[in-house]
C-alpha cells in the first residue's frame, strides 16, 4: 500500500517547475524575459487532450527498457509492450509481397532484377505510372493517387458483394486517424447549446475523445453493454441522444467495428438499427472499420456499414451520409509505420466535398509509400499469379495466430479471481474488467505502473478509454507471440492474486 | 475582354446547388431527411481556409491534362505545372543513395544482395535497428526514431559549426507542414483582444494563413520589401507589431528563409534584428528553413536562426523560444511524397514539451519511411564511402541546374514589358510583379486561368500568397527542365504582351 502511495505522488506531480524558473532571464531593458509559451499560455484545447495509449505509463516503459539495455537491474529481463496495436514491434513479420512492391516502387532499378516476381513488378509499375514523374517522391493529388483510389473502389465492391463504389468517393489518408480527424473537423460548429455533439462508444479508442477535446466539440457517450459481449444497444443510443439534445446539437455518430478496445463484432441487425437511428435523427455516420480483416470468432462476421445501408434500400442508401475508414496498420499486414489508410464517403453534399478536398490539400498529400502499401492490401496477388501461394500462407498464418491468441487471452484471464473478460471476437485487444477492493480504488491508476515496475508488462488502464463509473478495466493487445503472451497472462494472474491478497490483509484490521 | 468575363462567371459560381437538392429525401416519418453536413452547417473555420497552391486553377489543369490524354484538342500538347514545388513530378531524378536505403529498409532481404553498396546497407541496418521489431512497419515513438533524431542533431551541429544540438529537442514530422501546424496549435489561445496573433510575412506560403484561419488565430501581416529584393525590414516588423497589439496578443513570429514564394535569402544582420525583436517582445520564433540547401546567388549564404541566436550570446541563446523546420521535400532530394521532415525546438518550457509530445502522440507517429529518407539527407555518404562520388555528382547536378534556372527565370522575365522580377536568390520560386492596365485589374484572378487555357502553363496568382494592395504577382516554380522552363518563360512573355495589347485597344475608345 505504501508503495502505491509513493507512486501516486511521484507520477501525479509531473515536472517540477524549478527547472523552468531558472531559465528565465532578464532582458536588455531590465524586464524579465518571460517564456512566451507556458502551461498558463498554452492552448487550453491542447491541454485538454488525453491519449493514454501513449501516456506516462508508456514513457515509463521506454525508460525501463533503456535502463535494461544499460545493465540496470529489474525483476524481469524484458518489457512486454501490450499497450498498442503495433504488430511488427511484437515480432509479426511483414507480408513479403507488400514489401516487395514498396521496395520496387522506392528503387525502380530493381524492376530489372530477377529477384522479384512478376506480379510484384506489375503492381509497382501500375503504382509508379500513377505518380508524377513516375516517382514515389512526387506529391500525389490531395485525395491520393488515382489508380490506387480505383483499386480501392474495386476492392470495396468485391468485399460488399457488388454494392457499387465510386472512386471519386475514395480519399487516401495518413493512417485512419487523419481521415477521422478531417471528417470530424468538418462537422464541428456552433456555440453553446448548438455546439456539435459527437456520439462515441464508451469504451472508445481515445483518438476520438482527443480530437473532440481539441476541437471543443461535445462528447456524447453511449455505453456498450459489457454484460452482452460489449454489444451496441439501440436503447442506449436513444437515451444518450435524448439527454445530449438538452445541451448540444448531436450531429454525428461514431462506431468502431470490430471494436477497439472491446473486441466485439457487430451483428447485421445491430448495424441496421444504428443506421435507421442515424437516418431518423439526421446524423452523419462515421464507421471505423480498420479491423475489418480481424474477425476470429466463428460465430461472427464482418458487415460493412455501407453494405448494410445498401441492403436497407435506396431511401437509406441515397441519403445517409457515411464515412468509413480503413488502414494499413491493422488486419494481417500490420503496417503501422507506413501511415497508410483510406476513407470512403457516401452522400456528401457536393460543395462540402470540394471543401473537404481543400482542407486535405493544405497538408498536400498522404505519404505515397503508405498509399502504395494500401494498394497492395486491396489488390493482393490473384490465384493464378506467382506470389499467390506465399501471400496466402503468410496472411493465414498471421490471422490464424491472432485467432488462437484471442481465445487463449480470454481463457486465461477468466481463470483469474477478480478478472472477467468478454470473448475477443475481433480486433486486437482484450478489455477485461477487474474487480478491486474498495480501498484499492484510489490507486487504480497506479496499478498499471506497479505492474510495469514489477513484471515489465505495459498495459493501458481502462480510464484511458472510458468505462462505466465504479468499474475498472485495462486494455491489452493480443499481439505478443503466443509464448510471450502466455508468460504475460500468467504474470498478470500472479500479480493480481498477490495484489488482492495485500489489500485483503490491509483491510482486515479495520473490521 | 469578353472571354475574361465569361471565365469570371464560370469559375466564381462554384458548384450548382441543384445537384444537391435532388438528393434530399423524405424519411419514414414524413420529415425531410436533410443532409447533416451542408455549406450552412460546415465548420466555418474550415470554410475560411484558403490554399491556392492546390486551388481551382490546379484542379482545372488536372482536367485539361486528362482531356489531352483522351485526345481533346488544346492549343498546346502538354500542361506544364509550375504551381507547386514538386521536383520529381517535373522530371528531377531521385538521389540514388537515398532510394537504395529506403528500398533496403522496406525489403531487408535485399541486405544480402550484392546490388547495393555497403554504405547504403549500413545506413539501412542502423535505421532498422532503431525500429520496433526492426521493421519500418512498426510505429516509431511519437517524436520519431531515436537514432534518426541523433543523426539530425549531429547534422545540425556540423551545419552550425559546432553550436550544440540536443537530440531530445528534435521531433520528426510528417513533412514540415505538420510540425508548423503543431507548434502553432500550441500557441493559439485567448479570446477577443487577448487572442493569439501570429506574425507572418506577406507574401507568405499559404499553409500559414490556412492554419491561422483554421485555428481562428489573428493573422498579423508584415510586408517584405519588394524594392529591396524582398528583404525583411525591421521597421516594418515594429509597425505591424504595434498596430496588432491594439486588437490581439502577438505571440509568435514566423519567418521563411530562404523565402517562399519570394526566393530571398536573409542576411545575418537581418536575422539578428528579428531575433532581438523577438527577444524584446517575448515572441516565440518559428523559422521555416526547408530551403536551407537551396541558395543559388553567390552573394548569399544560408544562416540558420539557431546559429545566429547562439552567436548573439547566452542571454539570447538560453531564452528565446525557437522552433525551426526542415523537410525531405525540398533541397536537392525533392522527396515530397515521403512526407518526411523534422523540427528542432529551443528553450521550450519542460511541461510544454511534454504537452507537445502528447499532442503529437495522438497521430501516433510520422511515416517511418519518410523518417528514413530524412536520415539519409542528414547523414549522406562520407568521402571515403563507396557511394560518395555518385551522391555528390547527383546532388551537384540538381543544385547546379536549379541555380542556372533561377538566373534564367529572372533574366527572361525582366525582358517582358510590364513584368518585374527580383533575383531568385534561393528556394524554388519566382514571384514577379505584373503591371496590368486598370481595366484588367478586376480580372487579375482570371489571367492565370486564361494563361492555362491558352498555353497549358499552370501558375498561382499572387493573391494566394498575399501582396500589397494594388499590386499583382504570380508564383511560378523554377523546377521544369531547362528546356521546358525556357519554353514556359517565352510563352508567358508572348501571352503577357498580347494581353497588354488587347487591353490597350479596349481602353483607347474611352479616351
Automatic annotation (TrEMBL), chains A, B:
Record field: catalytic activity: L-alanine + 2-oxoglutarate = pyruvate + L-glutamate
Keyword Transferase among UniProt keywords: yes
One CC-aspect GO term: cytoplasm
BP-aspect Gene Ontology terms: L-alanine catabolic process
Gene3D superfamilies: 1.10.287.1970, Aspartate Aminotransferase, domain 1, Type I PLP-dependent aspartate aminotransferase-like (Major domain)
Superkingdom field: Eukaryota
Cofactor(s) this protein requires: pyridoxal 5'-phosphate
GO terms of molecular function: L-alanine:2-oxoglutarate aminotransferase activity; pyridoxal phosphate binding
Pathway: Amino-acid degradation; L-alanine degradation via transaminase pathway; pyruvate from L-alanine: step 1/1
Keyword Transferase: yes
The EC number(s) this enzyme carries: 2.6.1.2
Aminotransferase class I/classII large domain location: 119-492
Sorted UniProt keywords: Aminotransferase, Pyridoxal phosphate, Transferase
PANTHER family in the cross-refs: ALANINE AMINOTRANSFERASE, ALANINE AMINOTRANSFERASE 2
Family of this protein: Belongs to the class-I pyridoxal-phosphate-dependent aminotransferase family. Alanine aminotransferase subfamily.
Subunit relationships: Homodimer.
Function text: Catalyzes the reversible transamination between alanine and 2-oxoglutarate to form pyruvate and glutamate.
Protein name: alanine transaminase
Species for this entry: Oncorhynchus mykiss (Rainbow trout)
Organism lineage string: Eukaryota, Metazoa, Chordata, Craniata, Vertebrata
Gene that this sequence comes from: LOC110526268
Amino acid at each position: 500500500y505504501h508503495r502505491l502511495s509513493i507512486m501516486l505522488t511521484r507520477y501525479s506531480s509531473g515536472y517540477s517547475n524549478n527547472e523552468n524558473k531558472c531559465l528565465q532571464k532578464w532582458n536588455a531593458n531590465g524586464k524579465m524575459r518571460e517564456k512566451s509559451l507556458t502551461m498558463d499560455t498554452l492552448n487550453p484545447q491542447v491541454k485538454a487532450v488525453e491519449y493514454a495509449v501513449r501516456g506516462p505509463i508508456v514513457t515509463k516503459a521506454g525508460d525501463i527498457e533503456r535502463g535494461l539495455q544499460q545493465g540496470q537491474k529489474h525483476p524481469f529481463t524484458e518489457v512486454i509492450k501490450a499497450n498498442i496495436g503495433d504488430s511488427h514491434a511484437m515480432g509479426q513479420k511483414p507480408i513479403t509481397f507488400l514489401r516487395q512492391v514498396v521496395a520496387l516502387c522506392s528503387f525502380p532499378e530493381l524492376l530489372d532484377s530477377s529477384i522479384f516476381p512478376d506480379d510484384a513488378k506489375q503492381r509497382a509499375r501500375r503504382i509508379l505510372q500513377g505518380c508524377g514523374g513516375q516517382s514515389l517522391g512526387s506529391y500525389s493529388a490531395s485525395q491520393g493517387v488515382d489508380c490506387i483510389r480505383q483499386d480501392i473502389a474495386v476492392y470495396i465492391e468485391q468485399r460488399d458483394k457488388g454494392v457499387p463504389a465510386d472512386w471519386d468517393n475514395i480519399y487516401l489518408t495518413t493512417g485512419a486517424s487523419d481521415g477521422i480527424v478531417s471528417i470530424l473537423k468538418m462537422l464541428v460548429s456552433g456555440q453553446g447549446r448548438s455546439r456539435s455533439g459527437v456520439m462515441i462508444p464508451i469504451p472508445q479508442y481515445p483518438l476520438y475523445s482527443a480530437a473532440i477535446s481539441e476541437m471543443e466539440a461535445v462528447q456524447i457517450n453511449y455505453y456498450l453493454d459489457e454484460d452482452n459481449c460489449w454489444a451496441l444497444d439501440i436503447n442506449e443510443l436513444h437515451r444518450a441522444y435524448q439527454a445530449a439534445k438538452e445541451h448540444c446539437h448531436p450531429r454525428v455518430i461514431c462506431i468502431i467495428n470490430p471494436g477497439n478496445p472491446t473486441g466485439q463484432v457487430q451483428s447485421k441487425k445491430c448495424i441496421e438499427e444504428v443506421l435507421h437511428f442515424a437516418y431518423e435523427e439526421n446524423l452523419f455516420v462515421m464507421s471505423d472499420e480498420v479491423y475489418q480483416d480481424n474477425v476470429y470468432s466463428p460465430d461472427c462476421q464482418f458487415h460493412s456499414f455501407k453494405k448494410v445501408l445498401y441492403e436497407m434500400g435506396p431511401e437509406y442508401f441515397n441519403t445517409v451520409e457515411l464515412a468509413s475508414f480503413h488502414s494499413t496498420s491493422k488486419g494481417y499486414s500490420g503496417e503501422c509505420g507506413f501511415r497508410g489508410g483510406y476513407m470512403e464517403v457516401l452522400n456528401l453534399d457536393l460543395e462540402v466535398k470540394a471543401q473537404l478536398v481543400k482542407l486535405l490539400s493544405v497538408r498536400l498529400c498522404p505519404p505515397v509509400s503508405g498509399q502504395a502499401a494500401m494498394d497492395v492490401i486491396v489488390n493482393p496477388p490473384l490465384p493464378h499469379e506467382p506470389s499467390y501461394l506465399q501471400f496466402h500462407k503468410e496472411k493465414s498464418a498471421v490471422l490464424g495466430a491472432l485467432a488462437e491468441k484471442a481465445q487463449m487471452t480470454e481463457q486465461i484471464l477468466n481463470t483469474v479471481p477478480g478478472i472477467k473478460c468478454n470473448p475477443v471476437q475481433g480486433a486486437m485487444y482484450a478489455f477485461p474488467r477487474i474487480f478491486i477492493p474498495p480501498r484499492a480504488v484510489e490507486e487504480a491508476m497506479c496499478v498499471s505502473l506497479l505492474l510495469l515496475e514489477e513484471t515489465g508488462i505495459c498495459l493501458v488502464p481502462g480510464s484511458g478509454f472510458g468505462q462505466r463509473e465504479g468499474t475498472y478495466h485495462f486494455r491489452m493487445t493480443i499481439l505478443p507471440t503466443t509464448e510471450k503472451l502466455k508468460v504475460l497472462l500468467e504474470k498478470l494472474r500472479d500479480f493480481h492474486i498477490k495484489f488482492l491478497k495485500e489489500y485483503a490483509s490491509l483491510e482486515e484490521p479495520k473490521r
